[in-house]
Design brief:
Helix content: 25-40%
Number of helices: 5
Mean pLDDT: 89
Strand content: 25-35%
Shape: globular
Order of helices and strands: EHHEEHEHEHEE
Amino acid sequence: MRLVIGCDLEEFKRYYKQLALDGEWKGTFGFTEELDTNWEKILVDNPELLLAWKENDEIIGHAIWHETGTEAHREGDPRDNEDRNLLRKLCGGKMDNIVELHELWLRKKYRGKGYGTRFFEFFEDFIRDKRYDAIVYYADHPAAIAVCRNRGWKEGYLAKERWYVFCLSLK
């Protein structure tokens, strides 16, 4: 398995669509059969926001990340009070120089092989090298939650959304 920063967008869209067709994320919040046009534009303008996991030149997983802050989402939309307060607590106050690991997925047949841990090791170093202050990740999948806990990320919970929220300070 190797991690690739950016990849051919048409290849990624085919992989993304196949995940939905295979039922890999049936019922999972936020995922659709087609890559959202807003995300497509963002990835065209900023291909490094897409990280692809490849094995034998086939995409087997992906992650999408973006800049964010404790006060507002990437598009400047203000966070609600519960989210903002939890992020301030986890990140150590008001911060603008953080990233959110927005979407993370590994095809089911590749799970349980340590790829998730290897991805987090890579991603933490990748973002640290870019001189960001922290990484935030919203998770509901037990394996992702376990990796964050095992790596020592600070943890909170958004009761309204039923998401675990993790923050890793890079300072």
